Amino acid sequence: MKKLLEKVIENNRNYTEFGEVASYIPELTKANKNALGICVTTLKGEEICAGDCNTKFTIQSISKVITLIIALMDNGKEKTFSKVGVEPTTDAFNSIINLEAKNPNKPLNPMINAGAIATVSLIDGENSDEIFNKILNFTRKLAGNEDIHINENVYRCEKETGDRNRSLAYFMKSTGIITKDVENVLDVYFRQCSMEVTCKDISRIGAVLANNGVIPWTKERVIPEDIARVVKTIMVTCGMYDASGEFAVNIGIPAKSGVGGGIMASVPSNMGIGVFGPALDSKGNSIAGIKVLADLSKELNLSIF
Ligand code: GLU
């Protein structure tokens, strides 16, 4: 497996040249465009890494999976999905148009920004510190890593420049989707996006989902089985922005990407995979990371379809 991972990284590193690192905040432009790394965590607890697998990056939209799990555990499916839908979209992740145009006017799914902000507003807690700490601690538990923290510079920039997310959130307050203080909800959202992880962290989170909510290395159940199933389904239909259909056809693995360059994949009953490559394609997905997952899916026959 180690040799295979090294081969797919080296075979695909040249694709990093065809993408661009995220530039909507200055902090993300500092990433090394040619970085590419992978880690696989099997359900037997083996961990195999190759390439730039120790580089830290911000989790960004991959955190939407974690907040969806917590919101579902706090509220159940019925309440959660009365506020946010489960339908894929062909619009960009930060699109505004459907919020007003669709009837009922709830965000399409929890993986786009509007849906993720609505989802985080459903998490129980007294104040934003308590809610964010709940997200951080759950992330640490899923990743088996107490050393996950937020990148303060990224957090500050996200907060300073997040006007589009702010407009989505205030619109949702006006329609009753969000009922809490908007700035507090956004503060949690900006902090969750700014958590710093490595490929290994996200491959472990993918492994917990692959194991139906039981941590493979402690055997502790941390997510109810039905919620793990629902979340993996939404990862298939909505996890790769508006390229989710193509990803399902070519790769066929539940996955979620983030503009920090990470892709978290979960192969049911088999393994979690974490990929990092900050050069992104036009949809915001790691351009070489997708190629790596395509090769791996083919070599190991990982498609669930
Ligand atoms: N912090 C980013 C935003 O809300 C996350 C985007 C992403 O990873 O898709 O715009």
Beta content = 5-15%
Bound molecules: glutamic acid
CATH architecture of the largest domain: 3-Layer(aba) Sandwich
CATH topology of the largest domain: Beta-lactamase
Helix percentage range: 40-55%
Summed up, the helix count is: 13
Count of folded domains: 2
What is the element string, with H for helices and E for strands?
A: HHEEEHHHHHHHEHHHEEEH
- Write out the strand line-up for the largest beta sheet, numbering strands in chain order: 2-1-7-6-5
Question: How can the largest sheet be summarized?
Answer: 5 strands, antiparallel
Mean pLDDT: 96
Can you walk me through this structure?
With 305 residues, this protein is α+β, with helices and mostly antiparallel strands. The chain folds into two domains: 2-60 and 195-299, DD-peptidase/beta-lactamase superfamily (Beta-lactamase); 63-193, Beta-lactamase (3-Layer(aba) Sandwich). 48% of the residues lie in helices and 10% in strands. The strands form two sheets. The protein has a five-stranded antiparallel β-sheet with strand order 2-1-7-6-5. β6 (262-267) and β7 form a beta hairpin. The chain is globular and about 55 Å long. 53% of the residues are buried. The model has no long low-confidence stretch (mean pLDDT 96). Glutamic acid (GLU) binds next to loops. Glutamic acid is lined by residues 60-61, 93-94, 113, 158, 165, 193, 258-259, 284.
